[in-house]
Amino acid sequence: MNKSQLIEALAKAENLTLKKAELVVNAIFENMAEALVRNERIEIRGFGSFKVKYYNGYKGRNPKTGDVIEVRGKKLPFFKVGKELSELVDRS
Q1: Would you kindly state where each structural domain of the chain is located, as residue ranges?
Q2: Domain 41-92 has what CATH class?
Q3: Which residues neighbour 30 within 8 Å (Cβ) at sequence distance 6 or greater?
Q4: Within its chain, how far is the Cα of 29 from the centroid?
Q5: pLDDT tens-place string over residues 49-83
């Protein structure tokens, strides 16, 4: 399912116009992204949780030249699936 399919499903399920459903979906995603930027954890019971994980830098190699390069540390969003969703997917 992609974003436009989610918007269509929400519009149909809640009897909303596509424009209103799009506003709702966009507001949810924007607020989630802003929370992650503030390094806050997002928990959706039964679905899972999102948080920002920091990955340390390391020395890597350029595959073309073989030269050693310094890879800087970075922060990335991380999703951990909830127990209920995990069990639901496993049963299907």
Answers
A1: 1-39, 41-92
A2: few secondary structures
A3: none
A4: 9
A5: 999 999 999 999 999 999 999 999 999 999 999 99
